[in-house]
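> tool_call: predict_assembly(chains=eight)
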Amino acid sequence: MQDLTRTESDDQQLCLYGRPVASRLLLGTAQYPSPALLGDAVRRAQVSVVTVSLRREGARERSGERFWQMVADWGVHVLPNTAGCRSAKDAITTAQMAREIFDTRWVKLEVIANDDTLQPDVFGLVEAATELVRQGFEVFPYTTEDLGVGERLLAAGCEVLMPWGAPIGTGRGLANPHALKTMRGYFPDTPLIIDAGVGAPSHAALAMELGFDAVLLNTAIAKAGDPPAMAEAFAAAVAAGRTGYRAGLMETRDMATPSTPVAGTPFFDLSDGQ
Amino acid sequence: MQDLTRTESDDQQLCLYGRPVASRLLLGTAQYPSPALLGDAVRRAQVSVVTVSLRREGARERSGERFWQMVADWGVHVLPNTAGCRSAKDAITTAQMAREIFDTRWVKLEVIANDDTLQPDVFGLVEAATELVRQGFEVFPYTTEDLGVGERLLAAGCEVLMPWGAPIGTGRGLANPHALKTMRGYFPDTPLIIDAGVGAPSHAALAMELGFDAVLLNTAIAKAGDPPAMAEAFAAAVAAGRTGYRAGLMETRDMATPSTPVAGTPFFDLSDGQ
Amino acid sequence: MQDLTRTESDDQQLCLYGRPVASRLLLGTAQYPSPALLGDAVRRAQVSVVTVSLRREGARERSGERFWQMVADWGVHVLPNTAGCRSAKDAITTAQMAREIFDTRWVKLEVIANDDTLQPDVFGLVEAATELVRQGFEVFPYTTEDLGVGERLLAAGCEVLMPWGAPIGTGRGLANPHALKTMRGYFPDTPLIIDAGVGAPSHAALAMELGFDAVLLNTAIAKAGDPPAMAEAFAAAVAAGRTGYRAGLMETRDMATPSTPVAGTPFFDLSDGQ
Amino acid sequence: MQDLTRTESDDQQLCLYGRPVASRLLLGTAQYPSPALLGDAVRRAQVSVVTVSLRREGARERSGERFWQMVADWGVHVLPNTAGCRSAKDAITTAQMAREIFDTRWVKLEVIANDDTLQPDVFGLVEAATELVRQGFEVFPYTTEDLGVGERLLAAGCEVLMPWGAPIGTGRGLANPHALKTMRGYFPDTPLIIDAGVGAPSHAALAMELGFDAVLLNTAIAKAGDPPAMAEAFAAAVAAGRTGYRAGLMETRDMATPSTPVAGTPFFDLSDGQ
Amino acid sequence: MRVIVNGNEEQTEARTLDGLLRELGYGTAKVATALNGQFVPAAERSRVQLDTGAKIEIVSPRQGG
Amino acid sequence: MRVIVNGNEEQTEARTLDGLLRELGYGTAKVATALNGQFVPAAERSRVQLDTGAKIEIVSPRQGG
Amino acid sequence: MRVIVNGNEEQTEARTLDGLLRELGYGTAKVATALNGQFVPAAERSRVQLDTGAKIEIVSPRQGG
Amino acid sequence: MRVIVNGNEEQTEARTLDGLLRELGYGTAKVATALNGQFVPAAERSRVQLDTGAKIEIVSPRQGG
């Protein structure tokens, strides 16, 4: 099998805020059993974008620096998140700190509504997105499949939308595939990235078959029995779904149809008479 | 992405009746827009096994020979089918003719119950399998997810079972994933190949994630907009699902769980007071 | 709400082997917390048919007689089963004993293939059905959605088929609704009763909406928190699904359509200009 | 079958803004083939609440008055909607007009985001709900399963939430049952009514089994082959689901479990030896 | 004076909403009204002045979902 | 003579199925019977001879699903 | 003599399956054969007698699913 | 003077954010800072005065999803 990540010609390559992105699998960096396994996963999946976060650091800890050095060595795009923020204000300040420390205008904007579902607070999200775009950020909003919210995020200046598949960490796949398909059709020209809830390679393939541009995930790889192998599996699944989408999926049918042609079947007349 | 078909060490490679099979995607050869596109599909997917059939041939037609020469050039295992047979008797005679002409003991045994679903006639299937095994055939029975039928096929001497995913040509994927998962658990040591009904790469990935050993399909590739690209997509999906299965899929959860750790979240105390 | 069981005129009433059956909910009698609760369930659901079984009885036990007296008082049709039989031979002998003791030609024929799924052994089932019909029984075969098996059962003389919804006792509902819908279409004139796997009233309603003639269940009522109330719930659900089926269900649509007409909406032009 | 709508004792009866509501099926009045069939549907389903709308009226038309007289004769609660409104402002003015003409503080608040899905514009919805509550309305907001939006609607003073099942008029049932179940658990004390997308009685039963308090629908009845019969079917399904929910649904299981007890099965030892 | 009634242009002599309804022949019809997007209660129709280009909504009960 | 009744070994003096039921005390109990896997109708129990090792099933109505 | 070849009636002078194939012009074509529903291996075609009304299948490789 | 650093109370002599970081020993650590919920760029830390009760966040890169 040749290298599927190379089969897209340049004009079909995904661009996010003007930057070409070779792999359509975006990877979270949390929860791995060890930094070594995380690094292996990044390499095995050949990812182009990883998400990172900010956390409080004690004076002599220096763990942030070690992590950062590792990430820098990968040579990937870094997408800092605002995970854990419960208000637009916190998310905005976190984004500002992230911009300084990671030296990037990209931010994965999370404004969380509640702990049960970790779903986006769509009001805080639009408010924060509006302000961050004003400040020059390139915002990747973690949102729902709500079309009206998507429209407001685009109106605020977002050029990418990241709807959830299912609640973060559940691994349930696409909870509402019909709504996600509708979203894809409603925003034909906006890069749409499924973020959260993807638990198995088949979920990632389905997302791509529906026409989504990329998949961002973390738990399903970090918590796999063998994270680097699972990273490779997801990379293949994303490529498979994308290639399948572009190759034109067959229409499903209600009734069976022979794959082997009926014409010329031996014993055809004899059978009739039996 | 490295070549996924090579990541399985020798002892994990699929063996069907003693023959090692490198690719877990088995490909049907019917319904392609042209022989050239069929050939491209076989090469792009790097398949190891293709299904073929027998049809009546006029005296000076020689189309069978041309087709056969093409297949021979691919250097793959050939799995002749008994497609279209409606009785054990017809299937047995067809298998005998196929053995002579394709010079193989392998036979994909189809005994069809009705035209609406093209589902196996499980009675005729067991009868024909019993006789063909007695005659030295290596039988790949196209069957359902019925465990009792599976047991009788194994008792008859079959060493592989090929349950349907959904009716032939429908592309609906796995119509009863719970029953198929049960079947996988019930026959832990028998190679199980999903045959029929697979319509999209995500379906193939799901089949492999459930632990099936391989996927056999035809229509979804032959009737794709771009069959060779779709063949590649399915090959990647099968590899993705297999790798994911072996890497240990995460458990799904009902409630959300943060991927980014909560400890050390900035503003955590401030937020509480808001 | 009027009495739904009375809304079917005589020519639409379900007939099973010539006997009119007022209620389309058939009830199993096992596993109830007490005989009193079982009796309440039978009355609350106004069932017309109950299933019973035979079990070994010690010399001075007389529990069989007490149970039988209770059943006789209900004034319902009794449908003895061959539950637990693993071979055609056992099932036939059990059916013969049941005919003598319950004084009925009806028998719910179960020939079980394995303990994991308790699914029908379709070979033993057809064998036993053939012999029992020959002996004058009116056989209600517990079968799968397999159309070929169904055809053989009809050929053997069965006039009713009872496909499973899901494995006995799982309460998972209809595991393969598409196949069951196909079965309904394939046998348009045979009474088809969903037997096993139904866990919630909505499952029973769905079965009836697909056009099945009745639903037979046990565990979902016996193991409910309040069995008589649950019996009533299932009776209502079966009536609802049946009435809905006959009243002509709407076609589902992919796109939204206003229920309130658009014409004459106030502010329609003003809104356009906003 | 006794009258299921009467089985709830007074303390379990649904109350909406302080008014007891006997039937948990709320009915839309649009799209019926004739006023007579609408009236029959209302009577057959014994509904307690119907939705109505406002539309532009020509000077000598008087169709509004005739419709209104019919509704008044039914003796039900009237719930005027703001269907078709695309902004908070339009919805507020429409609600004010409805309050005057229907003489009720109740309003089903719809602020529509787009024509493809007719989904709520959650921003406009919260804005309008806030203002209408301030003006003394009792607001029934047509919303999504978004928990954060639900919280803001409750904070605005709404005492009922009406999440969609699927887009209006699609009849697809509950598109995201897991999210709706989560919503039920998240708002344990708020009346939650499934509004829109319900296409079959089984969908309504499922909604009630998940613990929703009521179901509001229109198209599935109005567009049925026999609307009054379908109204009756839905009334029965809602009662079935509610009764089932309160009676304690069985837990689903992965493996089969016999309903008829194994102990005392005849031939048990003989069978072992076969 | 030109006004817009339910989306259609009309010529009217009336100076109040009340007068307009009478002029158009609504009589005692069960309607509710809005002027330029603002609700006008029945009791205030006689006090509300119409200007050229005013947008008036006159609505009545209808079937709704 | 040893026979197996409902899966358990028993000693019996009875020579017929009928006699066995009486000996065991079934009296008029509502039961059905099988001998060595074959159904024995009530009317034939007195004509059926028991041999050593005979397997007898004696069953009565029970709850069933 | 009339025989049925691949579902169509044919007149033939041949007395064996081998002869029939030659007469029809199959030459060295890669085919397999059955007579009256029974497989006839290539090596036995010359030993197999044809009778009037014999049903012969002559098949070759084709695409299959 | 008491301040709150990353959620914990601390005593400090420092009058600026810059001074506080030095006093606590952060040295050249790769950190970003906020004061009372507002981001403070590195270049402005020496110009920002601390008051009693000030809430300071000091964060660095971490794994994230």
